[in-house]
Amino acid sequence: MRRLLLGVTLAVAAMAGQTEAQAVRIKDLVEVDGVRANDLVGYGLVVGLNGTGDGLRNAPFTEEIMQNILERLGVNVTGEQFRPRNVAAVFVTGRLPPFGRAGGQIDVTVSAIGDAKSLLGGTLIMTPLNAADGQIYAVAQGTVIAGGVEAEGDAGRVVQGVPTSGVIPAGARIEREVDFEFQDLSTLRLALREPDFTTAARIEAAINRAVGRRAANMTDAGTVSVDLLSTGASSPARAVVAIENLAVEPQRRARVVVDQRSGTIVMGEDVRISRVAVSQGNLTLRIQEAPIVVQPNPFAEGETIAVPRTEADIVEEPGIGLAEVPGGTSLSEVIAGLNALGVSPRDMIDILKSIKAAGALHAEFVVM
To answer: Coiled-coil region(s) at which residues (predicted)?
Structure first.
């Protein structure tokens, strides 16, 4: 099955290499400087669990936050000893989207930080969410939707998924807006997600061609600056609308990505191999323990002992003989040939590593 998956993956990669590069919208290649999300985090309490909460002896912080919440609600619990199993301390995380306005709602993720077994059926109590500046930007509350299931008996327990983590869709309400006046910008900076000089130059040319004057200027491989006054747009937002849908043919570095767990290989169309010779073989080491039990004769003194016996064997399995790959060959052709010879995915990845180490693989090699 792994070899079949690898063959399908290689076929898709080879077909992609034979097609011409497609034009991509600028909005899919860049991020507008200043238009970004902000991460939020808070510390709260989930209640209503069916005996699957924190053990307060192992998680004293749960008892502390529970006391604080009860005291804010007017309940004095100072000096009281309580050991409920239906509460759990959690971290609450979310992302404040760009231009998020007060009153809007965002999704949040809830994750247990103590020894709670499950958050299924729990309810998050009002939890403030802070940004990196320490200010509260949202408040979260609601029923947790956990993504796992757990079953337990007297002598066994089974868990599927992660029941100690869940989400609350639209579970937080924005209380504070980020102070960013987008309409006051005079220069718009476009940040490329994958910096490349050729792609940046093509974006610059496409924008200048669309507005009919030199409004865009490539600052470096990752930045293109746009003078909003030269675009003739009435506002920065309308300038972005006019720019982001322009089509550009991007350029990317040659790259090979391999996943050792699934045996998947993905490559770009520009990957090339220099002239190189390849030889591959497998050595298999087998070790088997077969101890012999020795007993004394009847009515004789002595004790039963086990005498160790080990069988070791080294077998060399047939592999690929010395083969020469001519210069300028594409990687898709080399891997297609190895796949036709029945080379296993793991051996194929090892061959690619060796070709890269020899300096014959002209591409970035990424191993996952």
So the answer is: none
